[in-house]
Every structure is written in C-alpha cells, then in structure tokens.
Amino acid sequence: MWTIAAVAYGITPPRTRADRAARFTDDGPDWIIHLPRPSVKVLRAIVRQFERAGTEGLETNELWQTSEIHELNGLKALRQGGDPAALMRKLKETIFAA
C-alpha cells in the first residue's frame, strides 16, 4: 500500500533519525562550510545526539552536559560561529527538512 501511495501521490516514507543524521553529516548543508571548525564539530555532535535521543534530545538543557558536546566546549564553540540559538534553529530546520 505504501508503494501505491508513493506512486499515486508522490509520498515517500518518513526518514529515520539515522537517515536524517547521515544526510546532515554526509552531504553537509551549505551554510555549515562558513562556520569555524569548533562550531561545526559541536553541531555534528548535536546531530549525533539527535540520532540517539530524537527531538527530545535536542530540547533539553542536558544536551550541553553530554560528554561529547561538553568536551567540545559546547556553547562556547557555537558562539564562535554566531548566535547559538540561531545555529540551533538552523540545524533543526536542516535535519527536519532532510
């Protein structure tokens, strides 16, 4: 039935978190190439956290306490690339549009 819907209405199956994370890290959005390396590393770590914990993992202050993000200096590293809230918004737009 899913195949019929896909053919008839152009509906594609929903992407998994792993698919979305892979598209972010493999293809890399154009906007990320202009950021400093520390910011990029943190954003990719956040995407990996999304892959593990889903949307809830992005919406908690505990995100910044995960070992990988903490070791990369999380917010401090993001600030090198601009407003952390704006970067997070852009990251979410990118992974949810994937």
Describe the structure.
18% of the residues are buried. This protein has helices at 2-9, 17-27, 37-53, 55-58, 67-71, 74-79, 84-97. The model has no long low-confidence stretch (mean pLDDT 88). By secondary structure, the chain is mostly helical. It has seven helices and no strands. The longest helix is centred in the middle third of the chain and has 17 residues, at 37-53. The chain is elongated and about 50 Å long. Helix 2 packs antiparallel against helix 3 (37-53). The protein is 66% helix and 0% strand. The protein has one domain (15-97).
What is the secondary structure topology, with strand pairs?
Elements (H helix, E strand, L loop, with lengths): L1 H8 L7 H11 L9 H17 L1 H4 L8 H5 L2 H6 L4 H14 L1
Helix pairs in contact: 2-3
The number of distinct helices, counting runs of at least 4 residues, comes to 7
Distance between the termini: 23 Å
Determine the structural class based on helices, strands and strand pairing: mainly alpha
Uncertain regions: pLDDT < 50 for 5+ in a row? none
